Fold this sequence. Notes:
This protein has helices at about 5-15, 20-25, 30-45, 75-85, 110-120; strands at about 60-70, 90-95, 100-105, 125-130. The protein has about 150 residues and is an alpha+beta fold. The protein has two domains: about 5-50, Winged helix-like DNA-binding domain superfamily/Winged helix DNA-binding domain (Arc Repressor Mutant, subunit A, Orthogonal Bundle); about 55-130, Lrp/AsnC effector binding domain/regulation of amino acid metabolism (RAM) domain (Alpha-Beta Plaits). The chain has a four-stranded antiparallel β-sheet, covered by helices on one side. Helix 2 packs across helix 3. The model has no long low-confidence stretch (mean pLDDT about 95).
Amino acid sequence: MNDKEKYLIQRLRINGRENINDIAKERKYPVSSVYDTLHKLEEKGIIEYRTRILFEKTGFPVKMIISLKTTKDGRKRVQEFLLKSKNTNTIYRISPGPDYYFEAVFKNYKDAQEFLDEISTINEITDANIHNILDVLAYEKFLTSEEHFQE
C-alpha cells in the first residue's frame, strides 16, 4: 500500500463519514486523486461501506457475546439456527475451542432468556459461554494510527 492509501484508510477508520475534501486539504493531495484512491480501495475489496447502528438507541439495549461448542455433526444445524435468528448480529466460526462466537441483541432480558432457552434445546451444543456486554471500550480501532502500518 502506498502512503496515500494508508492515510486514507487511517482517516476513514477514525471517522468513516469524514469529508474527502478535508482529508485532501490536510495532506495537500488533489481531491481527485483522493477520490481515485478511494475508488481503487473499494474495487480491490479493501474497504466497503456499512452503517453502524447504536442498538441501545433503537430499543435494543441488551447485548450479549456468546460462544458455542457443538458436536461435529451438529455444526450445520447450529449455524443455520444462528443465521436465521432475528437476534444475532455478527457471527463468527472460530477455532480452536468453541465453534461459534456471536453477538446477540435484545429488547430486554426476558427476550434474551427466551433466546437462551431456545438454544439450550439444541442437543448438538456441548458447551456455551454467555457474557453481557456492559460497555464498548473500543470499536473498530485497528488501522486508526500510523503505527499500525509500520513493519
